Amino acid sequence: MAAGGFRAVWRPGPWGRRWAACVGLGLAVLLAACASLPEPPAAAPSTSLTPADVGPAPLARVAAASLPSDAVATGQSGFLLMPEGPTALNARIALIRAARKTVDAQYYILQDDATGLLFLSELLEAARRGVRVRLLVDDLYTAGKDALFAALASQPNFELRLFNPLAVRSGPLAWRLALSLADLRRINRRMHNKLLVADNSVAITGGRNIADEYFMRSDQANFVDMDVLAAGPVVPALSRSFDDYWNSRQVRPIGSLMALPPDDARTRRLLAERCEDRRDLLPEAATDVMGHPPVSAQLAAGRLLLTPGDGRVVVDIPQKVTFDDPEASFADSVSQQTVAMLYGARREVLMVSPYFVPGDAGLALLQQQAARGVQVLVFTNSLDATDETLVYAGYARYRLAMLRAGVKIYELGSRLVPRDRRFGEFRHSSARLHAKVMLVDRERVFVGSMNLDGRSARLNTEVGVIVDSAALAAQFQALVPVRELGAYELRLRPGTESPQWIEHEEGGGQRVLDEEPGDNPLSRMRDWLLLKLLPEDLL
C-alpha cells in the first residue's frame, strides 16, 4: 500500500468473498451511526527539547562538527540524500541508537512486518535506556496493531499517539471504514507526514513509510524512494512541526482509545516475542550510489558528510484536515508552497511524483512554463508500475495535453528499474516509484512526503524541506538522467493524438511500444467508470 486515503481499500478477489464483503458492508452501513468517537480527553502537552536540555549529547556534537563555519554563520543547514532503501533504514536505526535524550517519530504507515518491528524494537530499547520516545502514527492502517501499540505505550519513557483515529478499532480496513461512515468527512483526511528527529539535532524526512516495501525487503514489489537527512537550523523547525501535531486536537493518546496493559511480565513477554529479537540491520554496501559510507560509520567518525544549503521547512498545520473550504486547505499548504517554486523557474523544472494528477490549474501552469521556454520534465509511474491504477487513470487524462505543450514525460517501468541497480537489489521483485522530489533550475530542491495531486493539496497533511543548493540539486540530477534506463520516455506517435512508450536500452538502442505497458481492458473500464463518480481530489 502507498499514499492516498482510500486508494488501497478495494482489492479484487474471488466472487464468494466479494459477495460476503458486500453483505458485510451493507450491514455495517446500517450500524454506522453507532460508531463515533467521544470528545477527546485533555492530553498532557509536551515539546521538543531545547539545545540546553540536550546539552553535549553525541548527536549534537556530530551535527555541529558536520557544518562548516561559513554555513553556520549564514544560517545554512546540511543535507544528505538517501536514495537506497537499506541505507535509509539503517540510518534511522543509527540515529535512534545514538540518541541520548529524545526521539520523535511521525509516520503515515508503520507496519508490523520485519521493518516495522525492527523500528519499534529500537524505539523500545531507546526508551529503556532513558530516552524519551514520542511515536505518532496515522490511524488508517493500524488495524491489528492495537495490542502491540498499547504494550509499547505502557512502557516507561514511551508515548504513542494516533492521528485522526477511527472509531472502530478492530477488523479489516474496509470494515473499519464502513462502520465509520457517519464520520466520513473526517476520516477521509489523513496525516501523510514522514519524520524522525533524534535529540533535536539530526532529522530524516522524505517519502518512506516504515514497511518492508520501502526498504527493498519485499518479495513482490519495492519502491524507488528518496529521503533526506538534515542537521542545522531546519531540525528545530521540524521538531516544532512535530510538537504542533503531537499537541493538536486531531491526535489522541492510544490510552484514551483503549485500556493500556500493566507493565507486568505478560506485557514484557509480548514485547519480547514481537520486538526484541528483531534488531538485525540490513546488509549495506561500503558506499551507496552517492559514494557515501553508511550513516553509522559517519557518526562513528564524528562527522556527517552533509551538503550545505539554505533550507526551509514546509509543513501543513494539523488543523488542515478540519477545513471544509478547498481553497483554505490549499492556501499556504506544502503543495501551494512547492508549486510556487515553478513560477520562478527560468530554465528547467523536474517533478518526480508517483501519483501525478495536475488538475486544470496545474496543467495550465505547466503549459505556461513550457511556452516560456522552460524545459518541464515529469517523472511518474507507468501503468505497469503503479499500485494505484485509478490515480494513474486520472493522470492519463492530462498526458496528451502535456505532451502537446512540450512537457517531457518519463514513466518508471516495473521491469526496467531492477536491471539498472542504482536504487538497490530488487531480486525477483518489481519496481514502483514513491519518491516525491522537485528540482527548479538545478538550484532549488524539494524533498518530502507530498504527491503532486489533489489529495495531498487539499485533504492530507504533508511535510518536506526546500533547499537552495546547486550542489544538492546536482547530486539528485545525477541519479535521474534525462534518458533514464529505468523508465519509458513518452512521445506523440507521428501523425496521431496517441502516445508511444520508448524503452531506452543499454548501448543506445531503443524499442518503441504503441501499446501501453500493463494495459488491461477490464481495469481500464472499471477506472473509467469510477472516474465518472469520484471527485478528482479523492484520487
Folded structure, characterized:
The chain has 539 residues and is of the alpha+beta class. The chain has 2 domains: 76-256 and 264-284, Endonuclease Chain A (Endonuclease, Chain A); 309-538, Endonuclease Chain A (Endonuclease, Chain A, 2-Layer Sandwich). The protein is 35% helix and 20% strand. The protein has helices at residues 15-31, 51-54, 58-65, 69-73, 85-98, 114-128, 146-153, 173-179, 184-187, 234-246, 265-276, 295-301, 326-330, 334-343, 359-371, 389-405, 454-458, 470-479, 521-533; strands at residues 77-82, 102-107, 132-138, 158-163, 194-198, 202-206, 221-224, 227-231, 251-253, 307-315, 348-352, 375-381, 408-412, 430-433, 437-440, 444-448, 463-468, 487-492, 499-504, 510-513. The strands form 2 sheets. It has an 18-stranded mixed β-sheet, sandwiched between helices. Strands 7-14 form a two-stranded parallel sheet. Helix 1 (15-31) packs parallel to helix 8 (173-179), helix 6 (114-128) crosses helix 11 and helix 16 packs across helix 19 (521-533). The longest helix is centred in the first third of the chain and has 17 residues, at 15-31. The protein is globular and about 75 Å long. The two termini are 14 Å apart. The model is unreliable at 1-33 (pLDDT under 50). Residues 187-214, 429-456 form the PLD phosphodiesterase domain. This is PLD phosphodiesterase domain-containing protein. GO terms for molecular function: phosphatidyltransferase activity. One of its GO terms (biological process) is cardiolipin biosynthetic process. InterPro entries: PLD-like_dom, PLipase_D/transphosphatidylase.
